[in-house]
Specification:
The chain has 824 residues and is α+β, with helices and mostly antiparallel strands. It is built from 26 helices and 31 strands. The longest helix has 47 residues, at 439-485.
Length: 824
């Protein structure tokens, strides 16, 4: 190959190198350089070849391995650090980072650490993590891997470090962020502590039961409620120990036990009322739940039982039940009506009293039939409108008085208390309230107002009658005295007679006024009402017309009463006359007597009398009747429905006064076109009937010579009495008042046989004068006179029938009375 040898040399600076790859994959390392002669002339190039295929493959494999390592090193989640140790003796004092990956920097927050000491990077490491150098040094010396945790203060992060070492001079640390795991562990630990605290402090008892039914966990409340020491229940069979009977004490088969069943069928159960047994053999009511417990493979491993002692609740429930029963009793037995109704006007509920007040047979009937309260319940539908307005504005109505309909459409007065029940949004759900029948009270109020009015009129009438009687005593007395002295053919005689008739008529009217005002003179005796009726029955038949039938229905066992028989006759006659006038075309007049005992408050309160036994006389006619307005005024004096000149309007007022003065009451019921019934109630007395004796003198000789002390403050009456008595031959000592009379009694030396005194006088009444005169002259007789009675006249002054004379008196009346008293 070399044809010629020439001294050649190559310039090293011009040598080139490259690699070529042959088609078969062989890689050659090729060198090329120019060939120069001594003359520096280029004689060509020289080529040298070497097979580097194996080396290239090895280099490629190494490069790939390094790339994989670097990728793994840089992309691993854990931080990696390769460090060189710095020891003093066997104490690791510091270490230098030789190599770290990106995760290390991310986890630790340290940057550019390679070649730096840890003491430079974290000067406070000895203080924040004092055991780090001890652990790192131990791993480097022993070669035994260890794990430790450090807290990176700036990052507030916990790192877990696994340390490896193959020689004393180096170690490797693998870092992992355990902050979340540590927090989770701490949270779990805290949760466990809280659960333990909860278990320790909760009021409910908790048991865990295994498949065999034994207790394997208990909380303090469970032990406390069951009376066991802590942990003494563990391992014991739940059923036999605490749950072997039902609430009624009967045995509880284990197969029926909810706790046992939940442990085997996987069904949770809530049990409301059973009993658990304590260690001391006593039991208590419980409410419990039992829930099956499962493992990770969803297999039942037992049950969890939570229970509570419901003794207090049972007591409260019993108390509530008793309260509800009490409420039901109050609701059912209340005297007042209690109800609930919708705002639209329909009853929702009612108690029996409500139904009874409104005349229904039952609350159910009331609710079914009364579904339009405004029109069916209230007499005036406007009452419902007014109530709704008040309830809408104020939510409550108190003591609302109104008229309502009963089932039969009769009217009663009620007082209602109602309140609106609202939901949380303020919308009205319904009304509830109470209803009281105040018809009797309203009647009493009306009666009271009428009584006050009548009393006022009576006081006025009594005062007028007193003055009238004094005047009429003089008018009638002097008229009679004048007529006795006049000849029969005297021209003025007729005038005097008319004056006397007018005076007598005025006296009659005055007597009626006194009867109404209850100030007339009554002489009450014990009598039988039937006897009074029978005594005047014939007279009554003469009063009524032939086209009127008189019927008497008299109870033979009628009770006795105490009253003035003459006044009772006057009552019957006045009512008979009124009945006759109410039946111009004929009819039936019925007089009935009956014993009644008033013990119903509704009745005796309406009649305004005390409860007890009464004799009732009812006088009924079939006449024209009266409307309600007329009935409210019939007992008022001077009120009359008769034509002018046909009645004074004093007849019924006199009847009213006599009945009231006799201790009774009178009630009228009437409807236009259906007649009228007067019912008179007189209290019964437990005394025998007295034989009525009328005072009188068989002789017509009224003359005498006795001395009479005449005491009268009205001059005209005193002068008339003086003239009458002196005309009859008496010696009369005349004075105007009680003080003068006592002076005469003390100074007059001769006997005084009779004291004739007025009752009503200024400064000293007749009865007071009588008492003092009798002390001075014990044997003196006393005769009192008055035009009306009041508290000044005591009953014992009237009962004798001889010690009193009523004004206006006649000449003969006074003469006879004086003679009777003197001769008694």
């Amino acid at each position: 190959f070399v044809h010629k040898v020439v001294y050649l040399y190559a310039n090293p600076t011009e040598i080139s190198r490259d690699e070529i790859e042959l088609k078969d994959g062989t890689v050659l390392d090729r060198y090329s350089a120019p060939i120069l002669g001594k003359d520096n002339k280029n004689y060509g190039r020289i080529w040298t070849f070497r097979d580097i295929t194996a080396r290239k493959l090895a280099e490629a494999a190494l490069e790939e391995s390094e790339l994989r390592y670097h990728s793994l090193f840089e992309n691993m989640l854990e931080g990696y650090a390769y460090c060189q140790t710095i020891f003093e003796g066997d104490q690791l004092k510091d270490f230098v980072y030789l190599e770290v990956n990106g995760a290390f920097e991310s986890l630790t927050g340290l940057k550019d650490v390679v070649g730096k000491k840890i003491s430079e990077l974290i000067p406070e490491l000895h203080e924040t993590n004092p055991d780090v150098f001890e652990i790192y040094g131990r791993v480097a010396l022993t070669g035994i891997p260890e794990r430790c945790e450090i807290y990176m203060v700036p990052l507030k992060r916990w790192l877990s470090i696994t340390l490896y070492s193959s020689d004393r001079d180096h170690f490797v640390g693998v870092f992992d962020n355990t902050t979340e795991r540590k927090r989770a562990a701490e949270a779990l630990s805290e949760l466990r502590r809280e659960l333990e605290l909860m278990m320790d402090t909760m009021e409910e008892g908790v048991h865990r039961i295994n498949l065999e039914g034994n207790i394997i966990f208990e909380n303090p409340a469970a032990a406390r409620m069951l009376g066991w020491e802590a942990s003494k229940l563990l391992g014991r069979p739940s059923h036999l120990t605490i749950h072997h009977t039902k609430a009624d004490g009967t045995p509880y088969p284990k197969e029926e036990c909810p706790i046992y069943s939940s442990s085997h069928d996987g069904v949770s159960r809530q049990v409301g009322d059973e009993v658990f047994w304590r260690q001391d053999g006593t039991s208590f009511p419980v409410e419990y739940s039992t829930t099956p417990m499962r493992n990770d493979q969803n297999e039942i491993v037992g049950s969890l039982v939570t229970f509570r002692d419901i003794t207090e609740r049972k007591i409260a429930e019993d108390a509530l039940e008793a309260a509800e029963e009490n409420y039901r009793s109050i609701f059912e037995n209340a005297v007042e009506g209690i109800f609930q109704s919708t705002s639209e006007g329909r009853f929702l509920s009612a108690n029996p009293a409500m139904a009874r007040i409104l005349g229904f047979d039952s609350p159910q009937e009331l609710i079914a039939l009364r579904n339009d309260i405004a029109n069916q319940h209230y007499v005036d539908p406007a009452s419902r409108i007014e109530l709704d307005a008040i309830l809408d504005a104020q939510g409550v109505v108190a003591a609302y008085e109104c008229e309502v309909y009963r089932k039969d459409r009769t009217k009663i007065w009620t007082q209602e208390n109602i309140r609106a029940i609202r939901n949380s949004q303020g919308e009205i759900l319904h009304y509830e309230g109470s209803l009281e029948d105040i018809t009797a009270r309203k009647s009493l109020e009306d009666q009271f107002r009428q009584s006050q009015k009548m009393e006022a009129v009576g006081v006025m009438a009594g005062g007028i009658a007193h003055d009238f009687n004094n005047l009429l005593t003089a008018i009638n007395g002097y008229s009679d005295m004048t007529l006795r002295k006049m000849a029969a053919d005297e021209p003025l005689r007729r005038n005097i007679e008319e004056v006397k008739k007018a005076g007598e008529r005025a006296a009659e009217l005055t007597s009626q006024l006194l009867a109404f005002s209850r100030k007339q003179i009554l002489i009450p005796v014990v009598l039988n009402l039937n006897a009074v009726i029978e005594n005047i029955e014939n007279m009554l038949r003469r009063i009524i017309r032939e086209n009127i039938e008189l019927r008497t229905v008299l109870n033979v066992d009628i009770g006795n009463i105490k009253a003035d028989p003459g006044q009772i006759e006057q009552v019957i006659m006045n009512l008979t006359v009124n009945a006759r006038d109410a039946m111009p075309n004929g009819g039936t007049l019925t007089i009935e007597t009956k014993n009644v005992y008033l013990d119903d408050p509704h009745v005796y309160q309406k009649l305004a009398i005390e409860p007890g036994p009464f004799t009732r006389m009812t006088i009924t006619d079939t006449g024209s009747g009266m409307d309600e307005s007329t009935q409210q005024h019939i007992f008022e004096p001077f009120f009359t429905t008769k034509d002018v000149g046909k009645g004074t309007g004093l007849g019924l007022s006199m009847v009213y006064g006599i009945v009231k003065q006799s201790g009774g009451t009178i009630f009228v019921y009437s409807e236009p076109g259906h007649g009228t019934a007067f019912k008179i109630y007189l209290p019964c007395v437990d005394e025998n009937v007295e034989k009525i004796k009328w005072a009188g003198h068989n002789k017509e000789n009224f003359f005498g010579k006795e001395t009479i002390l005449l005491v009268e403050d009205e001059d005209v009456v005193r002068h008339l009495a003086l003239e009458i008595l002196q005309g009859n031959g008496y010696n009369v000592l005349e004075v105007a008042n009680g003080k003068q009379a006592l002076t005469v009694c003390a100074e007059y030396a001769e006997p005084i046989h009779l004291l004739l005194s007025d009752v009503i006088m200024p400064h000293m009444s007749g009865p007071e004068l009588k008492a003092q005169v009798i002390k001075l002259r014990p044997d003196i007789k006393v005769l009192l006179m008055s035009g009306y009675t009041d508290d000044a006249i005591q009953n014992d002054d009237l009962d004798s029938g001889h010690a009193f004379i009523e004004k206006p008196f006649t000449i003969d009346g006074l003469s006879r009375k004086v003679r009777d008293v003197l001769d008694s």
